[in-house]
Specification:
- The protein has a 5-stranded antiparallel β-sheet with strand order 1-2-3-5-4, covered by helices on one side.
- Strand 2 and strand 3 form a beta hairpin.
- The chain is 33% helix and 23% strand.
- It has one domain: Histidine kinase-like ATPase, C-terminal domain (Heat Shock Protein 90, 2-Layer Sandwich).
- With 183 residues, it is of the alpha+beta class.
- The termini are far apart.
- Helix 3 packs antiparallel against helix 5.
- It is built from 5 helices and 5 strands.
Length: 183
């Protein structure tokens, strides 16, 4: 092992940031959406996010889980969706993995979200990318889709914190147009 690599390894091992890892596995049906949101929110509360950030996290999880269960796994009772939350310092990392294995182009859906004029739906990816600090998709064709998201807790007075003006998310539709999720 080269000296610089050894030094980096030692630095990582001595890092003062503790990680807390929490996992939940549910069948890929929309009936678990509340359970998944409650799971993630209960973990996010440990970081003492502001009320607006908590709302944003809940909205993102609602969108991400619905996409994984409905589009990724076609709401199949034979498939699971895995949710992993990692607290790392002031960061909440949320990983949602479905096992439908259906690749798609998230950039395409983000681009059409502004132009779409038909019906409801099709804007979740755009909302997720606007709210979260980091968003990445990983595909294994025929096996799984993994969504990796990071939300950094803002210090008071920092942009996006409670003492700052609330961020405005411009939605190209009315929230009243969204039908309730069937149970």
């Amino acid at each position: 092992m080269r000296q610089s690599a050894r030094m980096r390894l030692l630095h990582l091992e001595q890092s003062p940031v503790k990680r807390q890892i929490h996992e939940l596995k549910v069948t890929a049906t929309l009936k678990h959406i509340e359970k998944v949101k409650q799971f993630v929110v209960s973990i996010a509360e440990k970081l003492e996010f502001s009320p607006i950030e908590m709302f944003q996290i809940e909205l993102v999880v609602d969108e991400a889980y619905a996409n994984a269960a409905d589009h990724g796994s076609e709401c199949s009772r034979d498939k699971e969706v895995h949710i992993k939350c990692i607290i790392e310092g002031e960061k909440l990392i949320i990983i949602i993995k479905d096992f439908g294995g259906k690749p798609f182009n998230p950039d395409f859906f983000e681009r059409i979200a502004d132009k779409k004029t038909w019906g409801v739906g099709g804007r979740g990816i755009k909302i997720i990318k606007e709210i979260m600090d980091e968003v990445m998709y990983f595909f294994v064709t025929g096996q799984s889709t993994t969504l990796y998201m990071v939300k950094q807790r803002r210090a008071e007075g920092e942009e996006g914190s409670e003492s700052s003006p609330s961020p405005v998310i411009a939605l190209p539709f009315s929230l009243d147009d969204i039908p309730p999720i069937p149970t």
